[in-house]
Amino acid sequence: MKAMASLFSATATVIPRNLAVASSAKHPVGHSLPNSYSPPFLSFPTSKSNPRIRLTASLQSPRAHASASSSPSATFHGLCYVVGDNIDTDQIIPAEYLTLVPSKPDEYEKLGSYALVGLPASYATRFIEPGETKTKYAIVIGGANFGCGSSREHAPVALGASGAAAVVAESYARIFFRNSVATGEVYPLESETRLCEECRTGDVVTIELGESRLINHTTGKEYRLKPIGDAGPVIEAGGIFAYARKSGMIPSR
């Protein structure tokens, strides 16, 4: 259990291990990309045991993890949704929706339909369009202290249920980072620069986990991310309990 405990230490960014990426090209960080660059796309293997897992990714990415027996996902690609600093859990999923039970498939889907509904009216573009239950934004980009507020696990679950695969923020509230890893719903990635000031909602971006970088295809720029490290395989497995079963730390069901 020491391995699991180390994932939830005081430091959000942990030592990188066992992450790989399939990329069609290499480019220096901060340089523009050639027009011929073709971003890799993400695909997931089938898992009959978990009907929430989808098989392919386009501009609407699936939830963060594949089956517990698969190799780590290398790449996320899609539209990004940009928010500012101090996005709290009430904005991610208001308290009135916490009665929804994520373990029930229909309520899980409904929970996702309310993701980021608590954002103020100043966000003219909504994360989920009226009448829709899924977002078209695969990646959320935030500023400092993302996920502050209460300790509710519903916050990362709602983002994952909405169809988002990852959050990239300047920094996180520790409890949101821990809940993201524990539930396996979204990858909580940290940027080395304020990407919320570099990217705009609707930009097309690619995240390459193994290379720890984000590529903005709309602007032609790329940026370094902090490695996800040992938290990556836990999210990939589907959360802390799925990882513990896969690793033999606890008996399989």
Give a quick precis of the structure.
With 253 residues, the protein is an alpha/beta fold.
Fold and architecture overview:
- With 253 residues, the chain is α/β, with parallel strands linked by helices.
- The protein is 20% helix and 15% strand.
- It contains 7 helices and 7 strands, in the order αβααβαβαββββαα.
- It has helices spanning 2-6, 89-92, 105-113, 154-162, 174-183, 231-237, 240-246; strands spanning 75-82, 137-142, 166-169, 187-191, 204-208, 213-216, 221-226.
- The chain has a 7-stranded mixed β-barrel with strand order 1-2-3-4-7-6-5.
- β5 (204-208) and β6 form a beta hairpin.
- α3 packs across α4, α5 (174-183) packs across α6 (231-237) and α6 (231-237) packs across α7 (240-246).
- The longest helix is centred in the C-terminal third of the chain and has 10 residues, at 174-183.
- Mean pLDDT is 78; it is low at 8-72.
